[in-house]
Write a structure and sequence with these properties.
Radius of gyration: 16 Å
Distance between the termini: 38 Å
Strand content: 5-15%
Strand order of the largest sheet: 2-1-3
Shape: globular
Order of helices and strands: HEEHHHHEH
Helix content: 55-70%
Number of helices: 6
Structural class: mainly alpha
Length: about 180
């Protein structure tokens, strides 16, 4: 498979991919009860973005406690959700483009930092990473979530910012809910 150079992919398509990535982060973070405030694309072109959270005190984690380990796992799932959402976006455009996606580098660095405190063996790390990836995919790839991500990404790519109230409204309209 030949990789499509970024400059050969129209700006709007690339911006939408980043918007989908951020919408994936935001949607899963909301489902996992994180205090998302906004998703945004960075000016001037929107070819990078971020999902913002309400500022909260950084509480020290005690990784011997199950609740704190679960918080770390949820944070990793949120990070992986952006990648899962964007991968699905590019899969749908595969007949036209096959980009070398580089928007996951900062997410991967954050995942690595979060996992470093868990002191996992290589086998445990592989199982844990697989669990987080599968959970992210399960949340992002369900039909209602895909519809919400597409709508959130469209608005985000047009306005460069999407507030929590707008995200909540979109998710409610598409009946996105955490399924047990």
């Amino acid at each position: 498979m030949t990789v499509t150079p970024a400059h050969e992919i129209p700006l709007g398509i690339r911006r939408k991919a980043i918007a989908v990535h951020e919408a994936g982060h935001a949607l899963v973070a909301i489902l996992l009860k994180r205090d998302v405030t906004e998703a945004m694309l960075h000016p001037p072109d929107g070819l990078s973005g971020e999902t913002r959270f309400a500022s909260a005190e950084s509480l020290p984690l005690d990784l011997t406690l199950e609740a704190d380990r679960r918080r770390v796992a949820d944070a990793i799932v949120v990070l992986m959700a952006g990648q899962a959402a964007e991968a699905e976006y590019w899969r749908r455009h595969a007949l036209l483009y096959s980009p070398k996606v580089t928007s996951h580098r900062t997410d991967a660095a954050e995942v690595h930092a979060l996992k470093s405190g868990l002191a996992l063996s290589p086998e445990q790390d592989a199982l844990f990473t697989g669990y987080c990836i599968e959970k992210a995919k399960k949340l992002v790839l369900q039909d209602p979530a895909q519809a919400a991500i597409q709508e959130m990404a469209m608005r985000l790519s047009e306005s460069m910012s999407l507030l929590r109230a707008e995200m909540n409204e979109i998710m409610a309209r598409h009946r996105v809910a955490l399924r047990k």
